[in-house]
Amino acid sequence: MLATVGMTVAQDIWSCGEHNNGSKTGVGIYKNGERVVTLQNADYNFTAYDITRWNEHTYLAYRNDTYGHAYIYDYENSSAKDLGADTYAYKLFGRTNLYAAGYRKNGSVYNATIWKLNAGSTPTVLFTWDNGSYNTYAYCGLIGPDTYNYAGGYQYTGSDSWVGVIWKESTGVLYTFPQEKSYVLDMAYYDGSVYSLVATNASSTKWVYCDNDLLYTITAASSSIRDLHIESGDIYVCGYEDNQIKVWKNGEAYWTSTVGSSHIHGVWANSEGVYFCGKIGSNGTIWKDGTAIHQPSGCTVMRKLYVEDECANSDVRSLPFTDGFENGSTSWPCWTKLDVDGDNGVNVSYWDRVGKRLY
Q: Which one of 87, 94, 97, 324 is CB 3.0 to 4.6 Å from 54, fit for a cystine?
């Protein structure tokens, strides 16, 4: 394991990755570069998809590829919830509840689906998108400014045609993107808007949208885009180009690896720096500002990461109903108050989470 560098605020780096288990692949949860959970079976191949912290618990979305079931593992409770046969869970997100976005088999086709991960009970399908005889797939999800659940992915419109879409709970298709054979790979909610990362197999151009409006494009020959993260209004996108990992900030190249055979899968940013994860060769790796800080023994790839700040003031605060919060109390320890009406904080305009929001 490499030494952690540049930390000035106490924080935990949670990540999920994979390792060899004989001829099969296992998955794990990692905390600050140390594997704290190992999930494996001599007869099955597993794939890790996402990790998040919610309600003081760490959750891993993974799949038993041999068996065909997706699971959500709760680290603190040492238990897993089974989403059923022929399921995939790509993204975890939450606010008052925890949810998973992915897709499940419905007869002969797949339907984009969001599950509600009920505490102590079997997960339930919150909603699903049935497009008749055509497949629909969700790769990402979030809770939007109106408290409804959103999912992003793509849906087939013919035997060899599909489009990237965003679905909204109770509404169905909210946005359809104009690029043919496109996908919504990731989404983020920030300052009242939903941001989307859209890509196609046929073009090296990738598109970043704010709601339904094109914000900017990223063009990189032979590139593959992976993940999107917003911090303090700055939009970070990661991917790789010609076996070199790369991070873009607001559409411009931010950092490019000089190490060959590197891959990148997740990006995160906060006031302490920009973090990303993937692999160098066959070694799972976490970078901070371009410097490799963790390469856990036996890990072959890091899939996603979640950086959790630990702030000095952890008192429970009562917050007003404002953009991004509910009425009542919250135990989120990291917060700032923003006084946009200029009354020196007599009436708090709204509150903002330091670091990535929990949804």
A: 94
DSSP one-letter code for 44: B
Q: List the 273-280 sheet strands across, edge first.
A: 262-270, 273-280, 283-288, 291-294
State the amino acid at position 226 in one-letter form: R
Mean pLDDT of the chain: 84
pLDDT at position 289 is 93
Q: In degrees rounded to 5, what are phi and psi of residue 279?
A: -160, 155
Single-letter code of the amino acid located at 265: H
Distance in angstroms (rounded) separating the CA atoms of residues 102 and 323: 26
How many CB atoms are closer than 10 A to CB 121?
9
For residues 176 and 257, what is the distance between their CA atoms, to the nearest angstrom?
34
The pair of structure tokens assigned to 109 is 């086709």
Task: Give the pLDDT mean for 223-229.
Answer: 83
The structure tokens listed for 29 are 């949860």
Closest CA relative to residue 228, chosen from 188, 272, 198: 188
Q: Which two tokens stand for residue 78?
A: 């040492």
* Average confidence (pLDDT) over 38-61: 96
Q: Tokens 């999912």 identify what position?
A: 151
Q: Could you give the C-alpha distances from 285 to 1, 29, 185, 300, 321, in angstroms and in order?
A: 9, 14, 22, 8, 40
Task: Compute the half-sphere exposure of residue 31: CA atoms within 13 Å on the CB side of its CA.
Answer: 12
pLDDT, tens digit (0-9, with 9 covering 90-100), for 290-323: 999 999 999 999 999 999 865 534 444 444 434 4
CA max distance for the chain: 64
d(CA 332, CA 35): 26
Residues 84, 338: contact at Cβ < 8 Å? no
**What was the pLDDT predicted at 201?**
79
Residue 343, by phi and psi: left (phi above 0), alpha (psi -120 to 50) or beta? alpha
pLDDT of residue 338: 44
Where b means 16+ CB within 10 Å and e means fewer, 213-237 reads: eeeeebebeebbbbbbbbbeeebbb
Q: Which of 167, 189, 264, 257 is nearest to 225 (CA)?
A: 264
Residue 318 · residue 328 · CB < 8 Å: yes
